[in-house]
Amino acid sequence: MAGAARAPSICRRAPGPSHSSATSTSWRSRSTALRKAQAEIDVAVGTSRLLTADDVPRLAYLQCIVSETLRLYPAAPMLLPHQSSADCKVGGYNVPSGTMLMVNAYAIHRDPAAWERPLEFVPERFEDGKAEGRFMIPFGMGRRRCPGETLALRTIGMVLATLVQCFDWERVDGAEVDMTEGGGLTIPKAVPLEAVCRPRPAMRDVLQSL
Ligand code: HEM
Questions:
Q1: What is the atom index within ligand 1 of the atom nearest the CA of 141?
Q2: Is residue 166 left, alpha or beta, with left meaning phi > 0 and alpha meaning psi from -120 to 50?
Q3: Hey, CA dihedral for 160, 163, 164, 169, is it positive or negative?
Q4: At CB < 8 A and 24+ separation, what contacts does 107-111 make?
Q5: Does 146 carry a binding-site annotation?
Q6: Mean pLDDT of 166-176
Q7: Ligand 1 centre and the CA of 145: distance in Å?
Q8: Residue nearest to atom 39 of ligand 1 (CA)
Q9: What is the gyration radius of the CA atoms in the chain, in angstroms?
Q10: Where is this region: Disordered (predicted)?
């Protein structure tokens, strides 16, 4: 697109494919991922101190969890609306100046031609650079790409790692987490997450000293 401006209106994401069976498989892999992330933190940081921002880049598996979450649930599934500021061609189509263009990142991230088992939560697909070259755009692309990406990724990594280091997490009543998506611009959960967290016994001294 020759120059891009923000379009004034917003659109809703097209409904995604049904994925109830993938959801239960995904939930099992989420529990495993949580345990794996906790083990990684225990090895890299230990339990005698709180992790710091400097530790987070060394937590490779935790980064994979963040990437896989942003792949399956991009916070802005249709990015933000763009508007062509000149006549241009997109994918072979003539797009007149002033046309609103939406990018369906949600569908791109779940494209079966690009991803194996696209509806399943598999952080391992990002390990050892395996997903390099795959098209992921949770922060958009080009000159209107999110300027807050680095801050966002650092904050998410730090918050998630701290929650996993300090607490054991369980589902309420053992019920599966309902991952159904609600409508809206930012992919809210239709059913809010309820979880039980307990301070990890190994972290008790650290938590009590705060
Ligand atoms: C997980 C967190 C975040 C996600 C997934 C996210 C995602 C996005 C996306 C998809 C866009 C639109 C890109 C496009 O249309 O091509 C965007 C734009 C933008 N984001 Fe973020 N963002 C996040 C956090 C942040 C933070 C922390 C800040 C600021 C501190 C921020 C500031 C902005 C701004 C100012 C724009 C507009 C850029 C422009 O229009 O040129 N974002 N973001």
A1: 16
A2: alpha
A3: negative
A4: 107/14, 107/16, 108/135, 108/137, 109/71, 109/72, 109/74, 109/136, 109/137, 109/138, 110/16, 110/17, 110/72
A5: yes
A6: 88
A7: 7
A8: 144
A9: 20
A10: 1-29
- Centre of ligand 1 to C-alpha 6, Å, is 13
Mean pLDDT across the chain: 88
Residues with CB under 6 A from ligand 1: 6, 75-76, 79-80, 138-140, 144-148, 151-152
Ligand 1: distance of its center to the CA of 105 in Å? 14
**Residue 95's beta-bridge partner residues?**
88
Q: Global pTM?
A: 0.89
Ranges assigned E (strand) in the chain: 4-6, 82-84, 88-90, 93-95, 100-101, 167-171, 195-199
ipTM: 0.98
* Residues facing residue 171 across a β-bridge: 195
> How many Å lie between the centroid of ligand 1 and the Cα of residue 155?
14
pLDDT at 16 over 70: no
Percent of the chain with pLDDT over 70: 87
Distance CA 98, CA 44 (A): 52
Long-range contacts of 93-101 (CB under 8 A, 24+ apart): 95/1, 100/7, 100/9, 100/11, 101/1, 101/7
Residue 105 parent element (H or E): helix 105-109
Question: Six-digit token pair at 151?
Answer: 């801050």
The residue whose CA is least distant from atom 42 of ligand 1 is 148
Beta bridge partners of 8: none
